[in-house]
From TrEMBL:
Gene designation per UniProt: slc2a11b
GO process annotations (BP): D-glucose import; dehydroascorbic acid transport
Membrane topology category: Multi-pass membrane protein
Name of this chain's protein: Solute carrier family 2, facilitated glucose transporter member 11b isoform X1
Keywords: Membrane, Sugar transport, Transmembrane, Transmembrane helix, Transport
Primary localization: membrane
Length: 512
């Protein structure tokens, strides 16, 4: 190659080398802020889902003993089961209440302020459940579980908001996976702490249920050192200096200007627009496509069969020849699997994108539904078949953690702009908790009616979700919230409006 040619193209070669550099790692302060938000947020949600399983028999004995001492008569096993079901289901009711107020609190108190205030429910719940045994009042367990549900409902609504708004665009997906990682981490921790070697013995069950105070105390100690969401400070509160200071702490001095510019663009596009209420969002035709998407994805997250798999896990493990006293340790293995896949998804999401992971996850879950139905149908055909069923359980959990378990919350954050996002989370969370309650109520009847073919119902749900995502949902990787709004509405034939000075098409938003 001639020297003249090299001299002519040397600047271009240098530029090419410069643009192909590896992305910088997130700021340490940003990661610590995310961990502080998650430990008292969705970690609590996962922990309180699993920790209640270990002391089931001990709490039922306490209910029977308390009833006998209070009324000098034995109580029927059916009534004990009813009381236990009420204690467990109060978590779901509390979650529904929490998610309906979480969005409003996030606007009134801020994202960080709501997360800190939310710990009051966890601390009260720990106190009441711990006092239930020494006082002989099982009603305290009911109220305590209701409060843990409210805490979880608010956390699952507000924490993803905080993570999505403090994260730079390049790391928004990986940061958003913190929600899923800490949920699965909470589930795994609850399973481990509930083992007999730790707090799983009968005399320790009040202490076990009271340990929900530990994540709350940790968050109260750590989160105050980190700032409020920069987007909330600038767009909702108009605090320019506070936003600038928060961005510098979270992203570093060198990287804060670009993020501030994106926030300014979004603010300018939302001039005169107030934070929306859920009913206002439901009546707005310009975001109908996004609403339908998050409603379907959040319903599918509970109705896709993951809870049914956990329901069937003990049965499959028994059929595989695993001793009953060893099943809790295998169950810990399922929790570890989901935790590992959530971490894997967090590392892959910025490389592969949201759409690939969530469609791939649901596709693999569909395949697992078919295989699980076959193995359940021929459970006694060969000694190998129960082990194949056990493999299907692990494969289904791995597939769920790979995409649907984490990407759903990220999409709820990314498909809406600042003024619509809290209301969107209230709607999505309400659908999620209602679907959780619905599948818990209906699944036993599905099993009775369809027996081993019950997973064909979940096959249909997972397959339909794959088709919908492929046809309707755009990829959101490395795009600003305004760009995502623009692309989503453009792909659905909606009209877009004005353009800013930089040539970025902005969406018009109707003033409330």
């Amino acid at each position: 190659m001639s020297k003249d040619f090299m001299d002519e193209y040397e600047p271009l070669l240098k530029k090419e080398i410069k643009t192909r550099k590896w992305p910088k790692l997130p700021n340490k302060s940003l990661l610590l802020a995310a961990c502080a938000a998650c430990i008292g947020g969705t970690f609590q949600y996962g922990y309180n889902i699993s920790v209640i399983n270990a002391p089931t028999v001990y709490v039922q004995n306490f209910l029977n003993q308390t009833w006998r001492e209070r009324y000098q008569t034995d109580v029927s096993p059916d009534f004990i089961t009813l009381l236990w079901s009420i204690i467990v289901s109060m978590f779901t009711l509390g979650g529904f209440i929490g998610v309906t107020i979480g969005g409003t609190l996030s606007v009134k108190l801020g994202r960080k302020g709501t997360l800190l205030t939310n710990n009051i429910f966890a601390l009260l719940a720990a106190l009441l459940m711990g006092l239930s045994y020494p006082t002989g009042w099982f009603e305290l367990l009911i109220v305590g579980r209701l409060l843990t549900g409210i805490n979880a409902g608010i956390a699952i609504c507000v924490q993803p908001l905080y993570l999505g708004e403090i994260a730079p665009t390049a790391f928004r997906g990986a940061m958003g996976m913190g929600t899923s990682i800490f949920i699965t981490g909470g589930i795994l921790t609850g399973q481990v702490v509930g083992l007999k070697e730790l707090l799983g013995r009968e005399e320790y069950w009040p202490i076990l249920l009271s340990t929900t105070c530990i994540p709350a105390i940790l968050q109260l100690l750590i989160l105050p050192w980190f700032p409020e969401s920069p987007r909330y400070l600038l767009i909702d509160k108009g605090d320019s200096e506070g936003c600038k200071k928060a961005l510098k702490q979270l992203h570093g001095v060198a990287d804060c200007d670009g993020e501030r510019e994106d926030i300014e663009k979004e603010k300018n596009n939302l001039v005169g627009v107030q934070a929306r209420k859920p009913w206002q969002l439901l009546s707005d035709g310009s975001v109908r496509g996004q609403l339908i998407t998050i409603i379907l994805l959040n319903a599918a997250q509970q109705l896709n069969g993951i809870n049914a798999i956990y329901f069937y896990a003990d049965y499959v493990f028994k059929q595989s020849g695993i001793p009953v006293d060893k099943i809790p340790y295998v169950t810990v293995g399922t929790g570890a699997c989901e935790c590992i896949t959530a971490l894997t998804c967090g590392m892959l999401i910025e490389c592969l994108g949201r759409k690939v992971l969530i469609t791939g996850g649901y596709t693999l879950m569909s395949i697992c539904c078919v295989l699980f139905t076959i193995t359940l149908s021929y459970q006694n055909a060969s000694p190998v078949v129960p082990y194949l069923s056990m493999a299907c359980v692990f494969a289904f959990i791995l597939s769920f953690g790979l995409g649907p378990g984490g990407v759903t919350n990220i999409l709820t954050t990314e498909l809406f702009t600042q003024t619509s996002r809290p209301a969107a989370y209230m709607i999505a969370g309400s659908v999620n908790w209602f679907s959780f309650f619905f599948i818990g109520l209906l699944f036993p009847f599905i099993v009775i009616g369809l027996q081993q073919y019950c997973f064909l119902v979940f096959l249909v749900i997972c397959s339909l979700v794959v088709v919908y995502i492929c046809l309707v949902v755009p990829e959101t990787k490395n795009k600003t919230f305004l760009e995502i709004q623009n692309e989503f509405q453009s792909s659905n034939g909606s009209k877009v409006s004005s353009t800013d000075g930089a040539g970025t098409t902005l969406l018009s938003t109707t003033s409330i």
